[in-house]
Amino acid sequence: MRRIRYERIGGPEALFQEEVPVPEPGAGELLVRTEAIGVTLPVVRKVREAARPIPLGGELAGEVVSVGEGDGEFATGDRVTGLCFGHGYAEYALLRTAMASHVPAYATARDAVALVRSGAVALGALEAARPERGESVLVTAAASGVGHLALQLARRRGASRVVAAVGDPAKADFVRSLGADDVVTYGRETWGEPVDVVLDAVGGALLTPAVKALAPGGRLVAYSSGGGTIEAYDLLSGGRSAIGFQVAIVARTRPQRYTAWIEELWRLFGEGALRPAVHAEFALADAARAHAAIETRANRGKVVLVP
Ligand SMILES: NC(=O)c1ccc[n+]([C@@H]2O[C@H](COP(=O)([O-])OP(=O)(O)OC[C@H]3O[C@@H](n4cnc5c(N)ncnc54)[C@H](OP(=O)(O)O)[C@@H]3O)[C@@H](O)[C@H]2O)c1
Question: pTM for this structure?
Fold first, then answer.
């Protein structure tokens, strides 16, 4: 089978395709013939920044072709999606059953990779802020795989005003089409009327304006892999708070809550109330182009590899 790997730290050009044997599922694992693989900023960053090369994992969807020992929930032929911790940029990949879920008949594999993982992050980050109906919500990286779902979910959960913050004003039409009332670009002096909740996917230097965008009593949820520092005084003045969120922690420690998020996402999708967007599909062999699409911050929605 074909898979994508890298041996040296670098940019998208470090990725190469190789032929390797199809892996065997161990206990608690599924072998999946992949139909769609999501490309995300954390994985793209690892190619540039990890201390040493690691497998290109992430979310994927496809058909179960073989089941490891000890699992009764999944069978050959099932359509599944989940998070792959090993080599995921491949024609066949191993999924841990604990991190896998069924794809309903009304959805494609592309829908699944655009919706499930990113949607769970968006929903979890939103819940972490404990928003009340009628509060306002600002989402940074609002056109990203997670952000474009967070916009829709904030609206759905009763936000009075949804603000999309983006790096490029050319993304305004896209985020407005998903329900954003206002659009701001990061470079602006202020981000308009203060908001009750900020969901921040960018981090770094953007944390300072993100905290300052909060109204008194406002909450910032930090869920980015971009690092950064928050000044305690900026929290103290105005009684603002900052909350960290990581979906993997919830999936591991509160699996019922994680499962409830996935059920809610599929229900909203089935009702047509949540629209995951695929920015572009790339062949597996073009994984470098897919990574470049993220690095150039061009994407509007999810970037997907199709083996
Ligand atoms: N905490 C968790 O559990 C969890 C799980 C998954 C993902 N995440 C985080 O969520 C964020 C968004 O992930 P995603 O998969 O939705 O992103 P994505 O679909 O890959 O989109 C990337 C977008 O992020 C924005 N961005 C901000 N800083 C960037 C940078 N330094 N390089 C490239 N793009 C940058 C860009 O839009 P703009 O230029 O418009 O900002 C870009 O278009 C990431 O920080 C990721 O680490 C967190």
Answer: 0.96
